[in-house]
Amino acid sequence: MRLPFPPYINKIVCIGLGNFIAPDSDEENELLTLSMLRHAAVLTVAETLFKRFGRYIQIIAQDVDYTPDCAMVLSRRGFFIRGRNGAGGFAEIDDKTFVFAPSSNFCLKEIVADIAKPAAMFWSTVLTPEESEKTSRAHQLVTFGNHITSTWNYPIADADTPRVQLLVKEYDVYQFPCTNLFGSVSIYAFRRTSMVNMNQKIGLLNK
């Protein structure tokens, strides 16, 4: 399926894709392999966007777990590393950015919603409050004695807050097949009608 990505995308910002080179070890494990495959997927996305729109796509990445060796390998493959800590990666996000951040373990979507309206996002599927409550509910009942039982909801690190809900209303959503590589994620592409509205607002401001 040919997704209707905005034609003005000029960079991909990757957040939290993981480290794939273990320090002082030649051993491979599942997490390292997942990280390697996720970075490879980013290269595929950049190549696809280049072929479709004929524009160079810059790739920017940030992860607190990057080792120096991992950062060096990524740099050789065309990634621009924006430090292990701080907000360097987030500072690069604007309306021409494709945010690539599946399975985040912190409030990434809330931060992005505060920064800009990216051209596209690839991250965990945004759920309604009802869906979120059901998804985070523990399957095992908690017993308090005297036949009193209750369920509990575990906290969600990258919660779908009202601000996030408001952001994605301006995007077309394409749910990605759930896999061990990315988890339950969706692609969000900025809707064409939203682009027109944004250009009209910019035009009024420039008058």
Helix count from the secondary structure assignment: 7
Low-confidence stretches: 149-154
Q: Write the element-wise H/E pattern from the N-terminal end onward.
A: EHEHEHEHEHEEHEEH
Name the average pLDDT. Answer: 82
Question: Which range does the strand content fall in?
Answer: 15-25%
CATH class placement: Alpha Beta
* Fraction of helical residues: 25-40%
Number of domains: 1
Overall radius of gyration = 19 Å
Distance between the termini: 40 Å
Structural class: alpha/beta
The tally of beta strands, per DSSP, is 9
Query: Under CATH, the topology is which?
Result: Rossmann fold
| CATH second-level architecture | 3-Layer(aba) Sandwich
Main sheet: which strands, in order across?
Answer: 3-2-1-4-5-9-8
The coarse silhouette is globular
The major β-sheet equals:
7 strands, mixed
Task: Give a concise summary.
By secondary structure, the chain is an alpha/beta fold. The protein is 36% helix and 18% strand. It contains 7 helices and 9 strands; from the N terminus they run E-H-E-H-E-H-E-H-E-H-E-E-H-E-E-H.
Architecture blueprint of SSEs:
Layout: E1 11-15, H1 30-53, E2 58-62, H2 68-76, E3 79-81, H3 88-91, E4 97-101, H4 108-115, E5 120-124, H5 129-135, E6 142-143, E7 149-150, H6 162-168, E8 171-175, E9 185-190, H7 192-206
Parallel strand pairs: 1-2, 1-4, 2-3, 4-5
Antiparallel strand pairs: 5-9, 6-7, 8-9
